[in-house]
Inverse folding.
């Protein structure tokens, strides 16, 4: 037997008193929360999808030894595909050139790559497999293609494999009697990266020292050697002057700077219009439902005026009445908000799993990260709770100022 | 305990004023059982409302323990009401989603918390004869049981004064008798009671009885003793006998 009364149980009792009415109120809050959350989620998913696309476009420039241009003859000097990795060549340079490139105005990211060898290993792929070294910390071209983000930063003995390399995550691959753990797998790139194993530069240098890995005809690989530096420039900057500045930073005939000739700006502009539209829709719904919630709150307090009069006759002060009405509204808002967000999330997960979302949006929907989802849910909850609080301010004030005796006798008159 | 002097309440209706209570004088001593009766609309409920600080008088003073509650702030009156005054209405006013025990404990929310409240609530339920219904919900109770619970609720904070506004108005004769016996028992145990009713048959229960008409106390019969009173035996008393 419960021998203590609390405001909490009193509020819950008040809500239980009219379950249908309170369910309808909570539904209104759920509708608002679902709308706000869905809008944000759709925007984040669509923007995330575009951002992923942009990040997968790889580098803006590749800076390699001048001999590299020989490989490009016949297909033209400009790279029209995403620059994910450099070509497998034996022309190398020292990584001390990276500082020079990094200091060029307009350059915001640089990352080195080293081609080690190409091996034939039927257990890994039916095609020859390229072995590449890269710097996981500065890399911005390979890891955006990961099917699933790495749980931890790539460490020694771990590799990222291309789409066509056999082996599960956390399984071992053997390269020249050395064993590596597969930490990540790339999505299909429709390029040679699909049959490439990427490892950290330290592992790459160690592997290069192993007898028989680098062909005897090729120059030896020393620590500090790299094949190319991949360069990212400030978004929106004109790439041509930056490329020219990089070239001018080195003596003639020392490096080649190869760029790509396409951008994602039109797509980015299209997607930028979406958040504004969804925000307007959310605002319209909030504005439209606000009076409804305020009206419900006013009806509830009118309906409960005898109860309010009664508890005033028991000694409840005005601020207690005010707080009770507000807290009850906040409670319903919180319950409705959580239900709305949860229902939206479940719906999105189902639609995304079944592929309906992608076909409906006509764009690949990238599910936002858990932290981002939590943030969006928090925003939606905050908004509905704020609406619940503001909408009940006037009814709460009116109730608290009600003459208790009139309130008690109100239903008799 | 309660001293009422020149108490007046007027209500403005369109272009004229109605005096619901007109220059009432009243003194209530500790341990008294005051009965105020009169016809509907004579102003007795308004008078009770002013005694409890639920209605602000137009004129006059209501002193409770020497404090003029008519001039206290709303919060101060509420605080005094929580501690000193228990109210029983004609309707039970029990909250349907709270159990009997929770209903009785409800006023403790508005008073200083006491760990013994739960025990006191059970004692009160035993005193009013519904302890076995402590976990029941109001809709399962009879009218008499509801009224008993309402009385227990009015007493939970240990008020010095119990005010009852036609508490037996909606009850049958037998239940009315039971409830009045309960009031008499509480009064004998020291609870000061002020009750209004339109039923003159209840006069013998009061230590003081007053008759109200058109907002004024117009009659004051002699003190009656209600020891060994059979309610049905006093049914011959009429309003005329008391004026």
């Amino acid at each position: 037997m419960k021998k203590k009364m609390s405001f909490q149980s009193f509020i819950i009792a008040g809500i239980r008193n009219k379950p249908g009415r309170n369910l309808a109120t909570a539904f209104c809050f759920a509708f608002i929360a679902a709308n706000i959350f869905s809008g944000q989620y759709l925007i984040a998913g669509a923007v995330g999808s575009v951002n992923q696309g942009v990040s997968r476009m790889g580098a803006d420039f590749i800076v390699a030894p001048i001999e590299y241009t020989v490989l490009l003859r016949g297909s033209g000097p400009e790279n029209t595909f995403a620059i994910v990795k450099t070509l497998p060549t034996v022309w190398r340079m020292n990584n001390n050139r990276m500082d020079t490139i990094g200091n060029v105005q307009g350059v915001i990211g640089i990352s080195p790559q080293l081609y080690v060898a190409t091996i034939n290993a039927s257990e890994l792929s039916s095609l020859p497999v390229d072995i590449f070294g890269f710097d996981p910390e500065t890399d911005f071209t390979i890891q955006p293609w990961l099917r699933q983000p790495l749980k931890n930063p790539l460490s020694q003995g771990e590799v990222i494999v291309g789409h066509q390399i056999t082996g599960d995550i956390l399984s071992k691959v053997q390269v020249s009697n050395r064993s590596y753990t597969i930490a990540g797998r790339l999505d299909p790139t429709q390029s040679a990266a699909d049959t490439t194993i990427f490892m950290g530069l330290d592992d790459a240098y160690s592997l290069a020292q192993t007898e028989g890995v680098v062909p005897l005809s090729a120059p030896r690989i020393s620590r500090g050697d790299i094949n190319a530096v991949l360069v990212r420039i400030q978004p929106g900057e004109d790439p041509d002057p930056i490329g020219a500045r990089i070239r001018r930073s080195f003596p003639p005939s020392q490096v080649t700077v190869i760029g790509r000739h396409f951008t994602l700006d039109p797509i980015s502009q299209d997607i930028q219009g979406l958040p504004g539209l969804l925000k307007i829709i959310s605002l319209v719904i909030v504005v439209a439902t606000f009076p409804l919630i305020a009206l419900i709150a006013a009806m509830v307090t009118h309906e409960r005026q005898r109860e309010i009069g009664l508890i005033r006759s028991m000694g409840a002060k005005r601020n207690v009445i005010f707080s009770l009405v507000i807290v009850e509204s906040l409670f319903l808002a919180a319950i409705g908000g959580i239900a709305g967000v949860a229902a939206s999330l479940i719906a999105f997960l189902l639609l995304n799993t079944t592929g309906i979302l992608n076909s409906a949006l006509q764009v690949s929907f990238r599910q936002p990260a858990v932290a981002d989802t939590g943030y969006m849910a928090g925003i939606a909850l905050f908004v509905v709770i704020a609406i619940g609080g503001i909408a009940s301010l006037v009814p709460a004030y009116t109730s608290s100022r009600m003459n208790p005796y009139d309130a008690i006798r109100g239903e008799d008159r | 305990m309660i001293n009422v002097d020149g108490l007046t309440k007027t209500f403005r209706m369109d272009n004229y004023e109605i005096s619901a209570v007109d220059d009432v004088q009243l003194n209530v001593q500790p341990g008294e059982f005051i009965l105020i009766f009169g016809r509907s609309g004579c102003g007795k409920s308004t008078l009770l409302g002013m005694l409890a600080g639920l209605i602000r008088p137009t004129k006059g003073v209501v002193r409770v323990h020497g404090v003029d509650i008519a001039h206290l702030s709303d919060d101060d009156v509420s605080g005094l009401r929580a501690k000193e005054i228990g109210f029983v209405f004609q309707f039970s006013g029990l909250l349907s989603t709270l159990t009997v025990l929770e209903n009785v404990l409800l006023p403790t929310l508005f008073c200083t918390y006491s760990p013994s409240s739960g025990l006191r609530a059970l004692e009160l339920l035993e005193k009013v004869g519904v302890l076995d219904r402590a976990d029941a919900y109001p809709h399962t109770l009879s009218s008499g049981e509801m009224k008993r619970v309402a009385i227990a609720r009015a007493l939970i904070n240990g008020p010095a004064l119990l005010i009852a506004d036609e508490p037996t108005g909606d009850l049958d004769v037998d239940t009315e008798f039971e409830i009045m016996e309960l009031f008499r028992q509480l009064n004998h145990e020291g609870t000061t009671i002020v009750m209004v009713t339109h039923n003159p048959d209840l006069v013998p229960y009061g230590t003081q009885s007053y008759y109200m008409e058109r907002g004024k106390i117009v009659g004051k019969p002699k003190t009656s003793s209600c020891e060994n009173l059979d309610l049905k035996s006093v049914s011959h008393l009429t309003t005329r006998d008391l004026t």
